[in-house]
Amino acid sequence: MKSLPIYLASASPRRHELLLQMGVPHQVLAVPAPDGEDEPQLPGEAPEVYVRRTARDKAIRAREWVARQHRALEAGALSLSTPILSADTTVILGGDILGKPLDIEDARTMLQRLSGRTHAVHTAIVIAHAGVLLEDVSITEVRFKALTASEIDSYCHSGEPLGKAGAYGIQGKAGRFVAYISGSYTGVMGLPLYETGRLLDQLSSPKV
């Protein structure tokens, strides 16, 4: 697969690193985020629908931002023809969305809920290109071992839970909490490589 240069509409260092791992040339866009840490879930919106909509909204917002930058700047402006990749990762437990914790106590509560239970991690990815939105999603089951209060406290004070959906990063210290995983490890990290590669392959299709 010969990858086209793309824009990454995400400040996540993990997504940046995973694209580097794939050998995909890219530029990170500093798209201003909306108010609040997470996109609000709409009334009655299923978590599975929420994660797809959020990734789609990020791509659209980035596309509009690039267009504004293009109009405002002279030579060297951002290209309107470069594909834009966005993603959203959501942890779902018992039908509830566990987003990014507000603080350490919020992280502690999330980890207590995840302890000894199986949850789902949905990562939706969207590529906006030539007026088309290409979409895919990875769904991964993760089961945590039963966590002790000491383990939760130590992990919370490491600072690692903050800024991560479900209050944990599987690639970090929380990796030892995972008793079982079925699906995409990189999807839990924030960017499923298989699904991302599949969408990038579609960019070379005559239809796109």
From TrEMBL:
A GO term for molecular function: UTP diphosphatase activity
Q: Which InterPro entries match?
A: ITPase-like_fam, Maf-like
Q: Name one GO cellular component term.
A: cytoplasm
| EC numbers for this chain | 3.6.1.9
Active site per the UniProt annotation: D88
Q: Which GO terms describe its biological process?
A: nucleotide metabolic process
Q: Which residues are annotated as site, described as Important for substrate specificity?
A: R14, T89, Q171
Keyword list, A-Z: Cytoplasm, Hydrolase, Nucleotide metabolism
User: Any idea where this protein resides?
Assistant: Cytoplasm
What HAMAP family is this protein classified in?
Maf
Say what the protein does: Nucleoside triphosphate pyrophosphatase that hydrolyzes dTTP and UTP. May have a dual role in cell division arrest and in preventing the incorporation of modified nucleotides into cellular nucleic acids.
User: What is the protein's given name?
Assistant: dTTP/UTP pyrophosphatase
Protein's organism: Pollutimonas thiosulfatoxidans
